[in-house]
Amino acid sequence: MKESIPIEGVSCTELLRHTDGRGCLTEIFRQSWLPEEIVQWNLIRNSPASLRGMRVHVVHTDYVVPVDGSVFVALTDLRKKSNTYLASWTAEFGADHDSALVIPPGVAHGFLSMAQSCQLVAVSRYWDPADELGCNWRDPKLGISWPIPEPLVSESDRQLPGLQRLLDQLEDFQASFITG
Range of 66's domain? Predict the structure, then answer.
């Protein structure tokens, strides 16, 4: 994935691969590539046709590196003050692309595994359930056309509210964060 992403603050870092007769070494992370310090790394393994999302974090940045396989990634900007508010973007993102994706707070994201896949996900804050908001992946207001119409979805993702309810939750969260 070597294209520009039309959502403010989202970036794709091209990873440098060093190859010789033995194989390759790919540098996957430098602190200078992110605006914040990374405090936790997670490994996510996905079965084929499984979907994770749509989720959004209010306080932490995600740094996603595909390790094996590929996923269809979908992003929607939910930051009211952003120049790209409610813009959506999709692309296939896989280990053969030698790239890492930076997703800032306020950008909803979903990952649909096209085959068996694995991603490393680094975060700028420790995992906190209060920072794990989401909306139903099927909501037409997201403007996302998923390539697999009936993916495997967790019970918690299946029960997520629509986009409008998520926008209301984000507003409430930000108001309590500012005053609290």
Answer: 11-179
